[in-house]
Structure formats: structure tokens, C-alpha cells
Amino acid sequence: MSWTVTIPKKVGKKILKLPGRVKRSLAFLVREIELSGPARGQWPNYGKLAKNKYHCHLKKGQPTYVAVWEVKNKEIRLIEVTYVGTHEKAPY
Asked: Is the pTM of this model over 0.70?
């Protein structure tokens, strides 16, 4: 059974402003999360931030881009991407 990944409108607007390479990485990450769940250990600098909150780097270098996602409901397999952007402004 697959997971459902939601992206709030606020995050969606930020995604539109990202470089193409970062958008492609994010799309690939979201697809992997949908198929395999929230734990993505093979991604660069992947880490668990809290009980149900995770992050990883989408692009290394300057600037570094990160994605943060959170499991909203394990029973119905719902995940929400809460942040996509530069590492400096990440909410952790």
C-alpha cells in the first residue's frame, strides 16, 4: 500500500521558485516517499528530526537545498511536506 504525500499551498509557491535541478530532486524524493514510506536513509544528510519528522538535502553546495516532511497519520499513510528551500531558513 502506498503513502499519500501532500504539499500545502504555501510550500507549493516556494517550489515554483526553486532551480530546475532541485525541483527534479524533490519530485523524485516525493515519489520514493509515496512508494516506500517516510524513512529515506539513502538520501544525502537524511535525518530524523523528531518522532514523525524527517529531512534530507536535495542539493549540496552553496546554497544547500533541503526538504522537511512529517508523518501526519500512520494509519491512513499520510505525509505532508512542510518545508522546501535553503538550508539557512530550514525550520530545525
From this structure: yes
Q: What are phi and psi of 71, to 5 degrees?
A: -80, 115
User: Helices (H) and strands (E) in the chain — how many of each?
Assistant: 2, 5
Range 51-54, long-range pairs (CB < 8 A, 24+ positions): 53/82
Per-residue model confidence as pLDDT tens digits over 47-56: 999 999 999 9
Close Cβ partners of 16 (under 8 Å, ≥ 6 residues apart): none
Instruction: For the chain, list the domains and their CATH numbers.
Output: 4-89 (3.30.2310.20)
